[in-house]
Amino acid sequence: TVKGNYLNRMGRYDAGMKKKMEDDQVLLSEVQRALDNREFIFYAQPQCNMLTGKIIGLESLVRWNHPVRGIVQPGEFIPLLESNGFITNLDLYVWDMVCGKLHDWIAAGHKPIPIAVNVSRIDIYSMNVTNTFAELTSRYEIDPALLAIEITESAYAEDYNLIRQVVIDLRNAGFTVFMDDFGSGYSSLNMLKDVNVDVIKIDTKFLDMNEYSQNRGMGILETIVRMARLTQLRVIAEGVEKKEQVDFLRNVGCIYGQGYYYYRPMPIEQFEPLLLHEENVDYRGIQAHQLEE
Ligand code: C2E
Ligand code: MG
Ligand code: MG
Ligand code: MG
């Protein structure tokens, strides 16, 4: 009967929900244990000047180095940690590791290169992130200009006034602010004139090389780049995988890119030999372009 089917479905649904909640509970207690055991690490992925191929900065991307499962990607645990607020514990841990790394480079006499960290909107509700980053950079004795703060576009749309103020505070304190995943949500170009970030990272979806969507995506991308230049914004294209994408981006005046075409994210130790050779790095970072204009 209709009613029977309905109850059946509900029954399965409830069982599914219950299972999911139990799984989440297990995962959460594992995450707590993993934090205590220092199983979280960060991978780094270079951000490049596509005209010269030089590295202008790195992005830190968290990984769970699980004793049994091996390297676990953030997509498998971040959504849960965001839904219960635990993400903030993890992010504090990651930011601390990143600042520690910058400190170690300087202490060893190397020229440091800027590192971008990801900030969840939950972090912004839970604490004064500007104070947190200021404490970290002062404790590790590093220049705030070495830290770029990536805040995903959707956060701006949801908490416009709060985030706008946070961006102002972060920049006043000397940090660089990136708007991550630009174009992934419902933001409009209009938002860019009111939210005063240093850099927008254009979402991968505009680089999608598919027939119909390609032409439109490329057209929009070209418009974003042009508008960004007019408003003094720097632009990094995310998810650059192919030579054709690099060529297109350079043609429309997008100078910076990040993606598998250049480097995959990897343990920072694997990059260190590269970073220690000054000819691979443009230490002027993302400001170089501005200096040349
Ligand atoms: P995101 O910040 O937008 O980072 C870019 C993602 O694109 C990374 O995925 C990176 O590995 C991937 N990627 C880079 N180049 C390419 C490419 O050429 N092709 C493709 N297909 N993908 C590319 P990942 O490392 O899995 O991270 C996913 C998301 O998880 C990040 O997106 C960020 O939102 C979040 N995340 C990562 N680390 C942290 C963290 O420490 N804290 C917080 N709160 N979120 C983080
Ligand atoms: Mg990011
Ligand atoms: Mg992104
Ligand atoms: Mg993303």
From TrEMBL:
This is EAL domain-containing protein. It comes from the Bacteria. It comes from Hungatella hominis. The lineage of its organism: Bacteria, Bacillati, Bacillota, Clostridia, Lachnospirales. Residues 24-279 form the EAL domain. The chain holds residues 390 to 682 of 1157 of the full protein.
